[in-house]
Amino acid sequence: MTETEAAPELPAGPPKKGGLAQRVLPWLIALACFGYLYTRISGAAAREQMGLVPYLAGIFGDVSWGSWLALMIPYSFLFFLIDTLVIWSVVRWFNDAKLRYLDILPIRGSSYILSILNEQVGKGAMALYLNRRHDVPGWEVGSSMIFVMFCEFYYLLMWATIGYFLRRDSLPPEFAAIPGVAIAALVFLAVFLMFFSGRLSFGEELRKRQLFKSFREAKLWQYGAVVVLRSPALLSAVVIYTLALRLFGVEVGFGEMLGYLPVIFFGAATPGPMRTVAITLWVVLFPGHEGQMAAFGFVQHNFFIFFNAAIGVIFLRRANRELFDGEALERQPT
What we know:
The protein is mainly alpha-helical. 74% of the residues lie in helices and 0% in strands. The longest helix has 35 residues, at 290-324. The chain starts with 19 loop residues before the first helix and ends in a 10-residue tail after the last helix.
């Protein structure tokens, strides 16, 4: 049996645990972020001559939650539809799977439940579905998921760079690193594309591995297509987050939000403690509004994750049936 024909092998024993530092570091970063937030918020409460709890209760009480939900619920559904469109497109390009867009909706929605813990775990669930339901080799599906994540990095970096040049005078000094990161990323991309197109002679064995099938077959326009397909979600988020932040009593322009949001989204999409860092970043970016920004970052981030999971619950029964029901695993006629 060749590597292409074989499903991914399970490890022979229990997975190895990382070192003590690797396991402790995320907790230390998270604790540092929470300590920073507590210090800033308690300081803001003291300036208002209020206790911490009444100060935060007043912030939450001032928000028009009906208006906020009217913004966030449609945006969450729009993101779900666009996210599914990207996955469907990439799978059709590289995995020879005759799938309808509606076939991907249930499993993508259900994977949001697992994404509460880790976005990569959610993508792993989609890989399992495509392997069982449509006989797509596991390594090939994994290759497609890696391709999506690779393109998402450049999608966020592109918009962060555009936002920086639009609003660089109003952004914190740390954001001045964005153009340099963008240049380095473009240089890496050029070498990366030459490597997988075979123009570079080294690394032949690595290039031929099935896990990199999507990168070997990808054309430049397909990288760009993922960025284009994803972009309406980011641009919609700029509008929604700007309007939502105004409900918390903080005025911000759309151009300024375009500078902030891709960086924050990139941090939130990173596994581990970076999600906590992303929430903390709202407070750093808007000094003088510590309580409002802490509340905003916490509510926005958690609502998006848990409401997407609620969308997944709608599709969970069908996804489970198609994954684990013996009859549903039979290939459907096309």
